[in-house]
Amino acid sequence: MEELFFQWGILADNWIIVDPIGSSQASSGDYIIRRFAEHPITQFLIDYQLTVVAGLCRPIRLDIGASFDAHREVSPLMASSNDSWAQRSFNPYKIAKFDPTQDLQGPLSIAVVSEHSLGSQLGLQVPGGRLVVFGSADIIANHHLKLLGNEGLFLNAMLWGVRRENLVSVLPRSIEEYQLSLSRAQLGSFGIRLLILPTILALMGVIVFLKRRR
User: Fold this and answer.
1) What is the distance between the alpha carbons of residues 38 and 49, in angstroms, rounded to a whole number?
2) By the 8 A CB rule, do 23 and 38 touch?
3) If DSSP codes are grouped into helix, strand and coil, which group holds residue 7?
4) Which end of the chain has the lower number of beta carbons within 10 A, N or C?
5) Whether the bond into 20 is cis, omega within 30 of 0
6) How far apart are CA 164 and CA 113, in angstroms?
7) Distance (Å) of CA 81 to CA 2, 12, 14, 31, 188
8) Which of 40, 42, 52, 39 is nearest to 80 (CA)?
9) What's the Cα-to-Cα distance from 173 to each of 111, 119, 178, rounded to whole Å?
10) Collapsing DSSP states into helix, strand and coil, what is residue 149?
């Protein structure tokens, strides 16, 4: 697999991305991806302000050590936040700390596309190949694929890969049921707001009750 990626100018680091930002961590512990490049595959995520949910992610980036190829173009699709980093040794049971001497500072690319154009031969325009690489297989796991952002991303990647651009960026289904991907910070804020109104009403009820007893 590494040799295949090398031919396409892609480097899949055997590191794990760590992102301490609360808005990047779902209440379930999953990683919420919010940063997307403008590309036919991800444009709908930007337009509809959707997110993609994944588990642990590896950095996927341009391999600067690959041989130069004027017909090859590698572009990032998604990235982690500015405060993220990638480290080789990752222990989920320990508090991660950034080490500038060993770790990679973010933002880090989580998915890339590589396109190889063959150019014009014998007067004919010959299309080349396309490859999409994600840094986490959890993006298309059953419990994540049901999310609108994940499903649309996967379908768009497939359609773009087989050059069906006319279908790319079309949402796969109407939004009849939408599943929210709340970060821990958002969930906490939502919970506080949810408790404020009932608490105020309860206090008012107690005050009215006490006044009537007098």
Assistant:
1) 13
2) no
3) helix
4) C
5) no
6) 15
7) 26, 18, 19, 11, 21
8) 52
9) 24, 36, 11
10) helix
Token look-up 């009537």 returns 212
Strand partners, 52: 33
Q: What is the pLDDT of residues 92-147, one digit of tens each?
A: 778 888 999 999 999 999 999 999 887 665 566 667 899 999 999 999 999 888 88
pLDDT at 186 over 60: no
Residues 6+ apart with CB under 8 A from 130: 113, 114, 115, 116, 160, 161, 163
Contacting residues for 134 by C-beta, under 8 A, at least 6 apart: 60, 110, 111, 157
pTM: 0.76
Residue with tokens 């403008």: 38
Tens digits of residue pLDDT in 136-176: 999 999 988 888 799 999 999 999 999 988 887 666 555 45
Q: Measure the CA–CA gap between 181 and 27, rounded to whole angstroms.
A: 8
Is the CB of residue 126 less than 8 Å from the CB of residue 119? yes
Query: What is the separation of C-alpha 171 from the centre of its chain, rounded to a whole number of angstroms?
Result: 17
The answer to whether 157 and 115 have CB atoms below 8 angstroms apart is: no
Locate tokens 């109407």: which residue? 174
